Protein backbone atom coordinates (compact mmCIF):
# COMPACT_ATOMS: atom_id res chain seq x y z
CA UNK A 1 0.00 0.00 0.00
CA UNK A 2 1.12 3.52 -0.85
CA UNK A 3 -1.03 5.66 1.46
CA UNK A 4 -1.92 9.32 1.47
CA UNK A 5 -3.73 10.58 4.57
CA UNK A 6 -5.76 13.73 3.94
CA UNK A 7 -7.15 15.79 6.83
CA UNK A 8 -9.39 18.53 5.36
CA UNK A 9 -9.62 21.59 7.61
CA UNK A 10 -11.46 24.52 6.08
CA UNK A 11 -11.29 27.84 7.92
CA UNK A 12 -14.96 28.69 7.54
CA UNK A 13 -17.51 26.91 9.70
CA UNK A 14 -21.08 28.05 10.29
CA UNK A 15 -22.15 25.50 12.91
CA UNK A 16 -19.15 26.05 15.21
CA UNK A 17 -16.98 29.04 14.24
CA UNK A 18 -13.27 28.09 13.91
CA UNK A 19 -14.17 24.59 15.13
CA UNK A 20 -11.13 22.82 13.66
CA UNK A 21 -8.84 24.72 16.03
CA UNK A 22 -11.28 25.32 18.86
CA UNK A 23 -9.95 23.85 22.11
CA UNK A 24 -11.29 20.56 23.37
CA UNK A 25 -9.73 19.29 26.57
CA UNK A 26 -6.95 21.87 26.41
CA UNK A 27 -5.85 21.40 22.81
CA UNK A 28 -7.14 22.26 19.32
CA UNK A 29 -9.73 19.85 17.95
CA UNK A 30 -7.62 18.97 14.91
CA UNK A 31 -4.80 17.69 17.15
CA UNK A 32 -6.84 14.59 18.03
CA UNK A 33 -6.95 13.57 14.38
CA UNK A 34 -3.28 14.36 13.76
CA UNK A 35 -2.31 12.28 16.78
CA UNK A 36 -4.48 9.36 15.65
CA UNK A 37 -2.95 9.51 12.15
CA UNK A 38 0.56 9.58 13.60
CA UNK A 39 -0.13 6.38 15.53
CA UNK A 40 -0.37 4.63 12.16
CA UNK A 41 1.53 6.66 9.56
CA UNK A 42 4.75 8.63 9.25
CA UNK A 43 4.39 12.40 8.84
CA UNK A 44 5.45 12.23 5.20
CA UNK A 45 2.17 10.46 4.39
CA UNK A 46 -0.07 12.90 6.31
CA UNK A 47 -1.40 16.00 4.55
CA UNK A 48 -3.57 18.68 6.15
CA UNK A 49 -5.51 20.52 3.45
CA UNK A 50 -6.53 23.98 4.62
CA UNK A 51 -7.21 27.42 3.17
CA UNK A 52 -6.52 29.16 6.47
CA UNK A 53 -3.22 30.66 7.67
CA UNK A 54 -4.12 30.30 11.34
CA UNK A 55 -5.01 26.62 10.97
CA UNK A 56 -1.73 26.10 9.12
CA UNK A 57 0.16 27.77 11.96
CA UNK A 58 -1.66 25.77 14.66
CA UNK A 59 -1.02 22.48 12.84
CA UNK A 60 2.66 23.22 12.29
CA UNK A 61 3.13 23.67 16.05
CA UNK A 62 2.84 19.87 16.20
CA UNK A 63 5.82 19.57 13.87
CA UNK A 64 3.66 18.47 10.96
CA UNK A 65 4.37 20.55 7.86
CA UNK A 66 1.41 21.96 5.94
CA UNK A 67 2.77 22.06 2.37
CA UNK A 68 0.20 24.38 0.76
CA UNK A 69 -2.84 26.56 1.31
CA UNK A 70 -5.90 25.28 -0.50
CA UNK A 71 -7.11 27.51 -3.39
CA UNK A 72 -9.96 29.85 -2.52
CA UNK A 73 -12.39 28.07 -4.86
CA UNK A 74 -11.91 24.88 -2.81
CA UNK A 75 -12.73 26.63 0.46
CA UNK A 76 -16.35 27.62 -0.16
CA UNK A 77 -19.53 25.95 1.09
CA UNK A 78 -20.09 24.73 -2.47
CA UNK A 79 -16.70 22.99 -2.79
CA UNK A 80 -17.06 19.22 -2.63
CA UNK A 81 -14.94 16.71 -0.74
CA UNK A 82 -13.99 15.00 -4.00
CA UNK A 83 -12.40 18.16 -5.41
CA UNK A 84 -10.46 18.74 -2.19
CA UNK A 85 -9.14 15.18 -2.24
CA UNK A 86 -8.16 15.33 -5.91
CA UNK A 87 -6.31 18.60 -5.27
CA UNK A 88 -4.28 16.94 -2.48
CA UNK A 89 -3.54 13.93 -4.67
CA UNK A 90 -2.42 16.16 -7.53
CA UNK A 91 -0.08 18.07 -5.20
CA UNK A 92 1.40 14.80 -3.97
CA UNK A 93 1.96 13.46 -7.48
CA UNK A 94 3.49 16.73 -8.66
CA UNK A 95 6.00 16.29 -5.85
CA UNK A 96 6.93 12.76 -6.85
CA UNK A 97 4.72 10.58 -4.64
CA UNK A 98 1.99 8.51 -6.30
CA UNK A 99 -0.40 7.06 -3.70
CA UNK A 100 -2.69 4.12 -4.43
CA UNK A 101 -4.82 4.38 -1.28
CA UNK A 102 -6.33 7.53 0.19
CA UNK A 103 -7.25 7.72 3.87
CA UNK A 104 -9.65 10.56 4.62
CA UNK A 105 -9.79 11.58 8.28
CA UNK A 106 -12.13 14.42 9.18
CA UNK A 107 -10.88 16.60 12.07
CA UNK A 108 -14.36 16.65 13.63
CA UNK A 109 -14.06 13.09 15.01
CA UNK A 110 -11.90 13.54 18.14
CA UNK A 111 -12.54 10.10 19.66
CA UNK A 112 -11.45 8.11 16.62
CA UNK A 113 -8.05 6.64 17.51
CA UNK A 114 -5.09 5.12 15.75
CA UNK A 115 -6.37 1.70 16.73
CA UNK A 116 -9.63 2.36 14.90
CA UNK A 117 -7.67 3.34 11.80
CA UNK A 118 -5.56 0.17 12.00
CA UNK A 119 -8.66 -2.00 12.32
CA UNK A 120 -10.29 -0.31 9.33
CA UNK A 121 -7.11 -0.73 7.27
CA UNK A 122 -7.13 -4.44 8.09
CA UNK A 123 -10.48 -4.74 6.29
CA UNK A 124 -9.28 -2.99 3.14
CA UNK A 125 -8.15 -4.75 -0.03
CA UNK A 126 -7.71 -3.64 -3.63
CA UNK A 127 -10.98 -5.16 -4.86
CA UNK A 128 -12.95 -2.72 -2.71
CA UNK A 129 -13.87 0.83 -3.61
CA UNK A 130 -13.86 1.93 0.01
CA UNK A 131 -13.87 0.94 3.66
CA UNK A 132 -16.02 3.40 5.59
CA UNK A 133 -16.62 3.77 9.32
CA UNK A 134 -20.20 3.48 10.52
CA UNK A 135 -22.36 3.21 13.60
CA UNK A 136 -25.63 1.40 14.02
CA UNK A 137 -28.29 4.04 13.47
CA UNK A 138 -31.05 4.70 15.96
CA UNK A 139 -33.16 6.22 13.18
CA UNK A 140 -34.07 2.90 11.60
CA UNK A 141 -36.19 3.33 8.43
CA UNK A 142 -38.12 0.14 9.24
CA UNK A 143 -39.21 1.56 12.58
CA UNK A 144 -38.99 5.31 13.24
CA UNK A 145 -38.41 7.04 9.88
CA UNK A 146 -41.39 8.19 7.85
CA UNK A 147 -41.97 9.98 4.56
CA UNK A 148 -44.96 12.03 3.49
CA UNK A 149 -46.87 10.62 0.52
CA UNK A 150 -48.72 12.57 -2.19
CA UNK A 151 -51.82 12.71 0.00
CA UNK A 152 -49.90 14.22 2.90
CA UNK A 153 -49.99 11.08 5.06
CA UNK A 154 -46.94 9.62 6.77
CA UNK A 155 -45.72 6.24 5.57
CA UNK A 156 -42.75 4.24 6.81
CA UNK A 157 -39.61 4.94 4.78
CA UNK A 158 -38.97 1.21 4.44
CA UNK A 159 -41.78 -1.29 4.77
CA UNK A 160 -41.30 -4.50 6.70
CA UNK A 161 -43.48 -6.96 8.58
CA UNK A 162 -41.87 -6.74 12.02
CA UNK A 163 -43.67 -6.78 15.35
CA UNK A 164 -40.63 -6.43 17.60
CA UNK A 165 -37.90 -3.80 17.32
CA UNK A 166 -35.18 -6.39 17.95
CA UNK A 167 -36.26 -8.30 14.84
CA UNK A 168 -35.73 -5.47 12.36
CA UNK A 169 -32.56 -5.52 10.23
CA UNK A 170 -29.60 -3.47 11.43
CA UNK A 171 -29.12 -0.25 9.48
CA UNK A 172 -25.76 1.51 9.40
CA UNK A 173 -25.07 5.23 9.44
CA UNK A 174 -21.79 6.66 8.11
CA UNK A 175 -20.17 8.47 11.04
CA UNK A 176 -17.59 10.52 9.10
CA UNK A 177 -14.55 9.27 11.04
CA UNK A 178 -12.65 7.05 8.57
CA UNK A 179 -12.73 6.61 4.80
CA UNK A 180 -10.19 4.33 3.13
CA UNK A 181 -10.57 4.87 -0.60
CA UNK A 182 -9.20 3.00 -3.58
CA UNK A 183 -7.45 5.57 -5.75
CA UNK A 184 -8.35 3.72 -8.95
CA UNK A 185 -12.02 4.02 -8.00
CA UNK A 186 -11.72 7.68 -6.99
CA UNK A 187 -10.16 8.55 -10.35
CA UNK A 188 -13.16 7.18 -12.28
CA UNK A 189 -16.16 7.78 -10.00
CA UNK A 190 -17.42 10.33 -7.52
CA UNK A 191 -17.55 9.25 -3.89
CA UNK A 192 -21.33 8.88 -3.86
CA UNK A 193 -21.16 6.45 -6.80
CA UNK A 194 -18.80 3.98 -5.16
CA UNK A 195 -20.54 0.63 -4.74
CA UNK A 196 -18.06 -1.89 -3.35
CA UNK A 197 -18.10 -0.65 0.23
CA UNK A 198 -17.06 -2.48 3.38
CA UNK A 199 -18.23 -1.23 6.76
CA UNK A 200 -16.08 -0.67 9.81
CA UNK A 201 -18.44 -0.40 12.82
CA UNK A 202 -17.62 1.96 15.70
CA UNK A 203 -19.44 2.63 18.96
CA UNK A 204 -21.42 5.78 19.71
CA UNK A 205 -18.65 7.59 21.61
CA UNK A 206 -15.96 6.88 19.02
CA UNK A 207 -18.45 8.00 16.36
CA UNK A 208 -19.05 11.48 17.79
CA UNK A 209 -18.85 14.00 14.95
CA UNK A 210 -18.79 17.68 15.88
CA UNK A 211 -21.08 19.72 13.67
CA UNK A 212 -22.81 22.06 16.12
CA UNK A 213 -22.28 23.83 19.42
CA UNK A 214 -24.35 21.12 21.11
CA UNK A 215 -22.03 18.46 19.65
CA UNK A 216 -19.05 20.39 21.01
CA UNK A 217 -20.55 20.64 24.49
CA UNK A 218 -21.29 16.93 24.47
CA UNK A 219 -17.75 16.14 23.30
CA UNK A 220 -16.35 18.26 26.15
CA UNK A 221 -18.41 16.28 28.64
CA UNK A 222 -17.25 12.95 27.20
CA UNK A 223 -13.62 14.09 27.08
CA UNK A 224 -13.75 15.21 30.69
CA UNK A 225 -15.45 12.06 31.96
CA UNK A 226 -13.22 9.65 30.07
CA UNK A 227 -10.11 11.82 30.37
CA UNK A 228 -9.36 11.37 26.71
CA UNK A 229 -6.33 13.42 25.75
TrEMBL record:
What is the E.C. number? 2.7.7.-
Give the first-level EC class, as a single word: transferase
| Name listed for the protein in its UniProt record | Acylneuraminate cytidylyltransferase family protein
Write down the Pfam families for this protein, in alphabetical order: CTP_transf_3
Does the record carry Glycoprotein as a key word? no
Q: Which GO terms describe its molecular function?
A: N-acylneuraminate cytidylyltransferase activity
Recorded hits in Gene3D superfamilies, A to Z, give: Spore Coat Polysaccharide Biosynthesis Protein SpsA, Chain A
Origin: domain of life = Bacteria
Q: What are the alphabetically sorted keywords of the record?
A: Nucleotidyltransferase, Transferase
Amino acid sequence: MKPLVVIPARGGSKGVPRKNIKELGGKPLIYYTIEAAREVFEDKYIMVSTDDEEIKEVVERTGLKVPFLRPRELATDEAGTQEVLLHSIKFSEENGYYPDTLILLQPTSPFRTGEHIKEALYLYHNELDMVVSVKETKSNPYYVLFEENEEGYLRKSKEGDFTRRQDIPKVWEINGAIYIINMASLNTKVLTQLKRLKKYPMNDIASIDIDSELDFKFAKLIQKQLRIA
